[in-house]
Design brief:
- The chain is of the alpha+beta class.
- The protein has three helices and eight strands, in the order E-H-E-E-E-H-E-H-E-E-E.
- Helix content is 21%, strand content 33%.
- Strands 1, 2, 3, 4, 5, 6, 7 and 8 form an eight-stranded mixed beta sheet that branches.
- A hairpin with a 6-residue loop joins strand 7 and strand 8.
- It binds coenzyme A (COA).
- Coenzyme A binds next to helix 1, strand 4, helix 2, strand 5 and helix 3.
Length: 156
């Protein structure tokens, strides 16, 4: 990745600010925005820094597909790019880092509950939708479940 951007692994603390700004605007900043998967063994957070600031994030963890079928599923959560940096390919870079982490740890496929407004982003990155639109309980926003096999993601 070219300057001034650095792709890095982040701690849970380091993803909090952007989770607030992009995914949970209006939520008290003292409240930690945790995914139920953040503390699972193998869970990891990746992001892009510009200078000291974290400007893109995504989190990945092993988690069976909700249908219960298959082996080696990982779940992507909390993808966000600061609006000042949208459209520069940073979300795709973070998605790639999450896929690489899953692959290196035995992952075969990924799933996510995607906001309807972000479905095009996932499709551009080779994900497919799976099922019907639903309203997410946390955000009350319409979502679609999406999936992606890891074997055909370019991991270099
Ligand atoms: C969705 C999001 C992560 C995309 O990040 P990004 O860095 O802007 O995306 P990229 O620049 O890597 O885009 C890759 C491709 O997807 C397309 N794309 C990006 N966001 C899109 C969207 N919301 N709808 C349709 N297409 C989109 C881009 O145009 C680009 O296409 P191209 O390859 O033809 O140029 C970011 O806009 C964001 O944080 N949105 C708000 C929070 C959110 O919805 N997060 C996802 C929760 S499920």
């Amino acid at each position: 990745m070219s300057d001034p951007y650095d792709l890095v692994e982040l701690s849970l603390d380091e993803v909090q600010a952007l989770r607030h700004v992009v995914l949970r605007p209006g939520l008290d900043e003292q409240i930690v925005v945790e995914s139920c998967n953040d503390h699972l063994e193998g869970a990891a957070h990746f992001g892009v820094r510009e200078g000291g600031a974290v400007i893109a994030i995504g989190s990945i963890s092993p988690d069976p597909h909700p249908s219960g079928g298959g082996f080696g599923w990982w779940r992507l959560r909390m993808m966000a790019v600061h609006p000042d940096f949208a459209g520069k390919g940073l979300g795709s870079v973070v998605l790639g880092a999450c896929a690489r982490h899953a692959a290196e740890n035995g992952g075969v496929a990924m799933w996510a509950n995607a906001r309807m407004t972000a479905v095009g982003f996932y499709m551009r990155n080779g994900w497919m939708f799976d099922g019907e639109e639903f309203v997410d309980a946390d955000t009350q926003l319409p979502h679609l479940r999406m999936t992606r096999m890891i074997g055909n993601v370019k991991l270099t």
